[in-house]
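During the first year of the project, the team set up a workflow for recording each protein of interest as an amino acid sequence followed immediately by a discrete structure-token representation. This format lets reviewers and collaborators read both layers of information side by side without switching files. As required by the reporting guidelines, we include two representative entries from the current panel. The first entry is reproduced here exactly as it appears in our internal archive.
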Amino acid sequence: NGHDVPDERNAGIEPAENALAFAVAIGATFLARNMIQAGWRVALDRDPPKNPSSHEVQWRDALLWGAVSGALVGITRIASRRASSSAYRSLRS
């Protein structure tokens, strides 16, 4: 019938819930990046590339860093936003 299709990206999410989810995601992303960098240092005994697109960074390191950090940061953002939204909704009910 067309009425069940949301016309907004975050339909049904209150502004306060969205703000909380955003703030939690920023903090979780910061922590995840620091943990990924520390893990890189431990595993490879060197600093991760600061600028993976630099010609001074080997392709292997650039691709590995992009894949690992991109995937883990993405997962962290999604998980933190969903967790904070769930917590917000359970507190509101």
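The second entry, processed by the same pipeline in the following quarter, appears below.
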Amino acid sequence: SYAVDSATQITATTPAHAAGAADVAVTAPGGTATSIGAFTFVAPEGATSFYTVTPCRVVDTRSANGPLGGPILDASPAERTFTIAPGCGIPADAKVVSANVTVTGGSAAGTLRFYPPDATLPVATTISFSAGKTRANNALLPLSTTGGTGRTTVRNDSAGPVHLIVDVNGYFR
């Protein structure tokens, strides 16, 4: 998006870009003008950047019991905290992970909510599912940055237990 500030100045909002020189093309009723490397992209202070990683399974409760494996998530109001980073190429200072969240083996319909363990339980759900169905959803999972970085908590709001699979594909920091 853009805003015309004056006859000689515009302000533009662009997709994420590496800080530094940027090419800009402006199209107006009279034609197009391009300026190569004449503009500087400045990321806002405190902004995050997205980094991809090779897709990697970081949580699978169908696996043997362990910190990132079983047991199955208990029925509501069960909560479980997983340490996602560091691991699977996600650094310890990551703020959010991009993931595919899958539920399977649920005996009742329900929802899962993800949130950092040092934050309050959100109202918004990450994934909804029906009994006996496998369902997947892309999600951004916020991570704790205090008291053990890289952790996320999941709350099962279903009346029955359900298996959880989390495959990460990137992160923000």
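For the second entry, the following points were noted during internal review. Residues 65 and 71 are 5 Å apart (CA to CA). The radius of gyration is 21 Å. Both points are flagged for discussion at the upcoming steering committee meeting.
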